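During the second half of the funding period, the structural biology subgroup turned its attention to how the target accommodates small molecules. The most pressing case was adenosine-5'-triphosphate, which had performed well in the primary screen but for which no bound structure existed. We therefore specified the complex as follows and requested a full 3D prediction, including the ligand pose.
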Amino acid sequence: MSYCAAVAAVRLSSLTKVFDGVAAVDDVSLDIADHDFMILLGPSGCGKSTLLRMIAGLEDPTSGDVAIGDVRVNDIEPKQRDVAMVFQSYALYPHKTVQANIEFPLKVRGVSKTERAEQARQAAATLGLTEYLDRKPGQLSGGQRQRVALARAIVRRPAVFCMDEPLSNLDAKLRGETRAELVALHARLASTFVYVTHDQVEAMTMGTHVAVMSRGRLEQVGTPQEVYARPASVFVAQFIGTPPMNVLPVGVVIDRPVLVGIRPEHLELDPTSQVRTTVTLVEHLGHETLVHARVGETPVVVRLDAIEDAPSVGDDVGLSFPERHLHLFDPATSRRVDA
Ligand code: ATP
């Protein structure tokens, strides 16, 4: 079975979208390679959906260019762009069967009935939907409905799949399973995926690259490991990682004009340390324990393995900051500075 789409890279050049005088997307340039699984990650309102919608052609840029393959597509209608969009709300036709829903884009294109049925059957098999082809969407679970929406995107054989928070209506267990299915689907289709989420776990587990956005701008683009291990700014350091990276004011850890960041798993309880603090909260999460305290006015979290002895609320503890795990940021710009 072959669902190999005509694969294409996506290039965004100085892309800007202004709504009511405010830039929702502000001068974003981003290269998304063929076959990439690019995650657009950021908090609510950072402009990631608007960016995705400009790739799909559902929103016109105020300035800048969108290219798919070698073609500038700014003036090309969404239908002609060879892009399929999958939304959070599955947008299925409730009165049509699963089969008819999956076939619909092919019907619109005038594909013959036999050919449509065959392609829908193959897409359904790819997504484990074969036994549900005769059901209506109302008779399916949320996860199954989302898979129908994906199958409907697959039959179009687009060069680029654009997905806007497709898993956010699913419960935690189903989300985990569907994440794995999407990774497998991406490998099988060998297409370019552009995927919007505010969920860092989705970004870390599915993306081949992650573009972190804040206030309409790109903060950092890299592999999930790069953005975790070498965050380019305080924003990225604190957006990726649970709990977020501890960032301490100038002078607390190092006697230089830098902000010092350290991840909770790297901060150590150390009875011999001269940096003393009082434990304010202890969270036993089973597989790990989070110890909360304050350094001056700044809250900090230490993550312990479940097997380590945890202190109690009110205990006086020392903290040590292993140098190899420190991240340094410029206090004026909040950008990373190398040691
Ligand atoms: P969310 O995760 O909440 O969907 P997002 O990061 O996808 O957020 P966008 O939907 O791209 O963010 O919105 C970015 C900004 O642009 C927001 O401030 C939003 O209010 C504004 N915005 C989006 N669409 C429009 C519109 N059609 N008209 C006016 N403002 C808009």
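Two results from this model are relevant to the next phase. Helices lie at 48-56, 98-108, 113-126, 142-155, 172-189, 200-206, 224-229, 234-239. The pocket of adenosine-5'-triphosphate is lined by residues 19-20, 24, 42, 44-50, 198 (CB under 6 Å).
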